[in-house]
Structure formats: C-alpha cells, structure tokens
Amino acid sequence: MKKILFVDHAAVLSGAELVLLDLAIAHAQDSQVLLFEEGPLRQRLQATGVKVVVQQASEQVLGVRAGTGVGAVKAIPALMAMARQILEMGRGFEVIHANSQKAFLAAAIARFWGGPPVIWHLHDILTARHFSRTNRRIAVFLGNAFASRVLVNSQATGAAFVAAGGRESLVKLVYNGVPLHRFEGLEGQAAAIRAELGVGNAPLVGVFSRLSYWKGQHVLLEAMRQVPEVQAIVVGEALFGETEYAERLRAIANQPELAGRVHWLGFRNDIPALMSACDLVLHTSTEPEPFGRVIIEGQLAGRPVIATAAGGAIELIEDGVTGRLVPPEDAAALAQVMGELLKQPDLAQKIANQGKMSAQTHFSLEGMLKAFDQALILD
Ligand code: UDP
User: Fold this and answer.
1) Ligand 1 touching residue 303 (CB < 6 A)
2) Is the CB of residue 14 below 6 angstroms from any atom belonging to ligand 1?
3) Domains annotated on the chain, with CATH
4) H or E element that contains 41
5) Whose CA is nearest to atom 16 of ligand 1?
6) Do 178 and 300 touch, CB atoms closer than 8 A?
7) Residue with the nearest Cα to atom 5 of ligand 1?
8) pLDDT band at 202, cuts 50/70/90?
9) Is the pLDDT of residue 258 over 90?
10) Which of 59-63, 269-273, 310-314, 371-375 has the lowest average pLDDT?
11) Distance from CA of residue 117 to its chain's centroid?
12) Mean pLDDT calculated for residue range 105-116
C-alpha cells in the first residue's frame, strides 16, 4: 500500500470528510492525516487508530468562502504557511491526497517547491454557483500544472472540471461507497425511533443533509403543505456558518400548517437507523449535487428515495426503477411524487428493493477502495 498523507482543511463531518474517514481508516497502517482545524473528524479518526496531526490554519484562509473572488488575496500568506507544513510533513510519504480545495491549493504549492506528487480529490462541482471565476481559474490552473490525478466523485463533477478548463487526462472517477454492514439489522430500530418521535402511524419522510439553502430543506417544507398528513425529520446542522438559513427554516416550520409536523434532530451519527424509520428518504438539493451520499444511504437502508434530477444524483437513480427523480426546487412535483409513493406501498417497496440492489452493487466501500487504490497508481 502507498504511504499517503491525507490533507483536508476542514474537520467537520460533511460528505467529503466522511469519505476521507473511510479512506484513511483503510490506509491507517502506512498513512497519516493532516487537518488544518480542530473538529469532530479528528476524534473520529483517532478513535479508529488513524494518526492525525492538526496544524491550526489562520482564519484568513479558513474563513474564505468558495464564492469569494480577488478578495481572497489576503489569504495567500496563510496558504503559504499551509504549503510549508505540507512540504515538511510530506517528507516520507509517497503521495499527498488533497481532500478539499484549500488543501489542494496548498499541496500544489508544496509540489511546486519539490514536495511529493499530489492527488486532488475533487468532491465539488466547479460551477459559477458555488465558486467564483477567480477561484475556479486558480484551482484549475494549479490542477493542470501540479496534480498527478484529479479524482472525481461522479461523472458530473468530472465534466464540470473539464468544462472549467481542467485536463481530461487527469480525471479518474472514484464513486463514493459506504460500508454495507452499517445498513444491516436495522429492522428493530425503526419502531423505537418512531416511538421516540411520537409520530404514531403518520407517514414519515426525512432529509439528512447539513442545513444550507442549496440542500433545499425549504423545498420539503413547502411540499409538506400539499401533503397534509406527512411528518418529517430534518437531520443535520448548519456546518459552514449558515445559521441564518437554519433560523429561517425553523420560522417556516412554526407556521400553523406545519407546526408540530417537523422534527429537528440536529447532527446525528445514526443515519441508517433514522432512515429506516422513514417511509421515504428525500434529497432536495436545489443545485446539482456532486454525488449525494444520502441518496445511496437511503437506498441501502431499503427506503424509497426521491432525489432532485441534477448532477451526480442522475447517476445514482434511474427514475421509476431505483428511486424517483423530481426537478430541483419544484415543491409541487416533490409533493406529487411523495403522495404517489405513500399511496402505493407495493410500488414504493419495489423501487426501494431495486434501489438497494443497485447501491449494494455499485456503491460499496470495497468498490470505492478498489477504485481509489487503482487511481493512485501513477505512471
Ligand atoms: N450526515 C450525518 N449526520 C447528519 C447529516 C448528514 O452523518 O446529521 C451524513 C450523511 O449520512 C452523508 C453525509 O453526511 O453521508 C452528507 O453527504 P452528501 O454527499 O449527501 O452531502 P455533502 O455534505 O457532501 O454536501
């Protein structure tokens, strides 16, 4: 196995960091993780025996939002400091795995200074909606110049990188995969969770993403007005400073039509069990989702999944076969499909079974690790 230095600027538990967790655990014997902030990822890594170093980076670089343009120039000295740390710690490793864009920028500079080859694991769709022009240009330029590979989590992510000027020959597809065993033996837990929530026999749906406008929890709340008997669990918290949106959601949910129907569970580590307690698992992103782990997790939990038809989600669901797809930000369409599936439990079950089989076949942890190891073979 290769000696890898995994680097991420963030230590929150969003999808990309959960992928890093699984990769680092699988490579724990020869590898280490370097994080540029403190956070729950550190504890999760350490709890499984992965060696982790945290070098707290300055807010000047951590605080830069992806959509920021030339204003990010102020972050350059802090980025250089990160690059120096990667260069220093990178000695003795065969490859640097940069799991976030900021980590990649710093790793690319370290490579320029003579550091080890850099693999950029791109978990984001590089579009104007999320990334400023300057930001995309710099990332793609450095990608073309200094990345030995760009791992993408879906064809959609790869296509956006190439459309932004990225070299196609660098791109390797490594779909997310999750440990299948986490989704076994859930039967007993669903009833306990429903009892705890006090939802009785009401149809229950769930969303399982950080609270952020583009994750579209507001679309679910809007759709629920049109399916009056439904209750919902909203799982996740605002991870990247989007507390204003979270407050707005709560205000909407307090309106008379929705009051008492929305259960706020915050960030949870028992996603499979929570999904198993739902009649439907929903994915409501308003923008193309780079991959959409919650979609495959819903499938693996044996629940019918309704997702928005954009980005990587289209690669995970065949509409009407392994799940249902609805247009982004279309509460009426979401309400209609929710109603259809809730009224036809046999059809819903059939779709759930087919979704589960598809996810087991295409999105296992073993599959991801195999693709990852192959992508690390540099010619
Ligand atoms: N997740 C979690 N606890 C929560 C909410 C979400 O562990 O309270 C997990 C979820 O199960 C999924 C990941 O966070 O594995 C989110 O990944 P996804 O690709 O759906 O979105 P991202 O965060 O990468 O935008």
Assistant:
1) no
2) yes
3) 4-177+365-375 (3.40.50.2000), 180-362 (3.40.50.2000)
4) helix 40-47
5) 15
6) yes
7) 236
8) very high
9) yes
10) 59-63
11) 25
12) 97
Structure tokens at 77: 């000295």
- pTM higher than 0.90, yes or no? yes
Closest protein CA for atom 17 of ligand 1? 15
DSSP letter, residue 72: G
Measuring CA to CA, how many Å separate 358 from each of 46, 272, 299, 364?
Answer: 32, 17, 8, 10
Nearest to 177 by CA among 21, 319, 42, 305: 21
- Tokens at 153, concatenated: 């989590």
- Relative to beta strand 305-308, strand 32-35 is unpaired
213 lines ligand 1 (CB under 6 A): no
Please state, in angstroms and rounded to a whole number, the distance separating the CA atoms of residues 36 and 306. Answer: 36
Q: What are the tens digits of pLDDT across the range 56-82? A: 998 888 887 766 665 677 788 899 999
The number of angstroms, rounded, from the C-alpha of 187 to the middle of its chain's C-alpha atoms is 26
Cβ–Cβ < 8 Å for 140, 165? yes
Place of tokens 């490859």: 95
Q: Which atom of ligand 1 is nearest to the CA of 176?
A: 19
Query: How close is the Cα of 35 to the center of ligand 1, in Å?
Result: 19
**pLDDT average, residue stretch 42-66:** 90
- The amino acid present at 44, given as its one-letter code, is R
- Which amino acid does the sequence have at 223? A
Mean pLDDT calculated for residue range 94-119: 97
Q: Is 347 exposed, middle or buried (0-12, 13-18, 19+ CB in 10 A)?
A: middle
Token output for 93? 């490793």
Write the CA distances from 104 to 166, 204, 311, 343, integer angstroms.
14, 41, 23, 48
